[in-house]
Design brief:
By secondary structure, the chain is an all-alpha fold. It has a single domain, classed as Amino acid/polyamine transporter I.
Length: 444
């Protein structure tokens, strides 16, 4: 009788928990950031057919790639170990150092992207919404980065709380904007479909646009920085009670539901923008190097005649929403970059008392990070090109290629070796990585 009660209790406790819902929303909120504001531009740049194909690929990319990374994190013998510990366990200290380097070079270019984005967004907001004469780019970038550096240096705990608070208002704003754009939908995207527009090859062909679109999907649908913490939490909660198999299945369910939410919100936002903007407007937004919300704000600002209440509200609020999203993403990625660079300095440049030099190392890292971000912000390279050539390829190395390599080399992951989805994940990782070489050939 006791055994039956024990089994019944275990089944009851193994049901979906509140913590599972919390983590589903946490993964979802982590992925929804500033990258989403560029996704409609890249996805819509090739027209309707490529974005429809991207829509079909979005969930498999989001779910399968993150599940592969989660399985790697689950393969460690220590249930409290993070991804660095797991890599060192499987590949030794040299492997841990390599991952640390990859992690740093995966996040630092994202800060450069956000530095360019926040400078352009602030300048276009001042020029179009506040009607202020164009300011010197170097001064604006320096002012914004110094303001963020001061906030980071003196109020880190408050900053983290603010970031967490802003996640869901930002998501709500995206959904409301997507719904509110419906009255402005038009058929121009359908009018552009012709034999010339649907060619498979060439610079503007369907295949090239899908290939480049995969990079922005990897960038926009990315919650890999939090996967290690997520898996560690779930292992501590479930593994001792229900075993590794149940823990892996539960993590897969959470990742699946987070991916569904993420794809639904981002793709609805992308389609709503696509049906509102003509192909020429999307190309112009890419050329201006600004977010889709900033472009829409400028578009409604230039409308003559009677404006609707929505167009007036969007004109005033879109750039502010974009600024909030970029600030949120910048702060979150800055902390990861700082920790990674501090670790590299301590590992290679200093062998003494680590606690004694913590503040000094923080200042050195901050100076390098903010200085390099200011230089890139002043140069003002195209943001989508930066994402496609630097941000997304390195993310894919960690998110796609590293787990696939581990499956072939690590005995604990050998049970996943012959899974058909491995080919899909590997292809996504390789195609995204090849964008780096494509951009070099394209520009030079």
């Amino acid at each position: 009788m006791m055994s039956i009660n024990t089994i019944t209790c275990a089944k009851k406790n193994s049901k979906w928990r509140k913590s599972d819902t919390t983590w589903t929303l946490g993964l979802f909120g982590t992925a929804i950031g500033a990258g989403v504001l560029f996704f409609p531009i890249r996805a819509g740049f090739g027209g309707l057919i490529p974005i429809l194909i991207m829509f079909l690929m979005a969930y498999p990319i989001a779910f399968l790639c993150h599940r592969a990374l989660a399985r790697l994190c689950l393969s460690g013998s220590n249930i409290s170990g993070n991804i660095t510990d797991i890599i060192e366990e499987h590949f030794g200290k040299i492997g841990g150092v390599i991952i640390n380097f990859l992690y740093f070079f995966a996040i630092c270019p994202l800060l450069w992207i956000y530095g360019v984005t926040i400078t352009n967004t602030f300048m276009t907001f001042c020029e179009h919404q506040l009607q202020i004469m164009p300011l010197h780019r170097g001064f604006v970038a320096l002012f914004l980065l110094m303001a963020m550096a001061i906030i980071i240096f003196f109020g880190r705990d408050l900053m983290v709380k603010v970031i967490s608070f802003l996640v869901f208002p930002f998501i709500t704003s995206l959904v409301l904007i997507s719904l509110s754009l419906i009255p402005y939908w038009n058929t121009s995207v359908f009018d552009q479909i012709s034999i010339n527009r649907v060619s498979l090859l060439g610079p503007n062909g369907i295949l090239i646009n899908i290939w480049l679109g995969i990079s922005i999907m990897v960038f926009s649908f990315n919650f890999s920085p939090i996967v290690s913490s997520f898996v560690e939490s779930k292992r501590q909660e479930y593994e001792s009670e229900f075993g590794p198999k149940f823990t892996e299945e539960n993590c897969s369910k959470i990742i699946s539901r987070a991916s569904i939410l993420m794809v639904a919100v981002v793709m609805f936002f992308a389609f709503s923008c696509l049906f509102t903007m003509s192909p020429d407007m999307i190309a112009d937004a890419k050329k201006q190097n600004i977010t889709v919300l900033s472009y829409l704000a400028n578009h409604f600002s230039s409308m003559s005649g009677g404006k609707s209440i929505f167009s007036t509200v969007l004109e005033c609020s879109a750039s502010l929403i974009a600024l909030v999203a970029i600030f949120k993403s910048f702060f979150g990625h800055y902390l990861g970059t700082l920790e990674s660079m501090n670790g590299l300095i301590l590992k290679f440049a200093y062998k003494g008392d680590k606690e004694h030099l913590t503040n000094k190392i923080n200042l050195i890292s901050m100076f390098f990070i903010m200085g390099s971000t200011w230089v890139v912000s002043y140069i003002n390279p195209n943001i989508l090109n930066l994402i496609e050539s630097m941000g997304a390829p390195i993310i894919s190395s960690l998110l796609c290629l590293l787990p696939m390599y581990a499956i072939r080399k690590v005995p604990a992951l050998s049970k996943y070796k012959n899974k058909p989805e491995n080919y899909f994940i590997s292809i996504v990782g390789i195609l995204t990585l090849l964008n780096f070489f494509y951009k070099i050939i394209y520009f030079f």
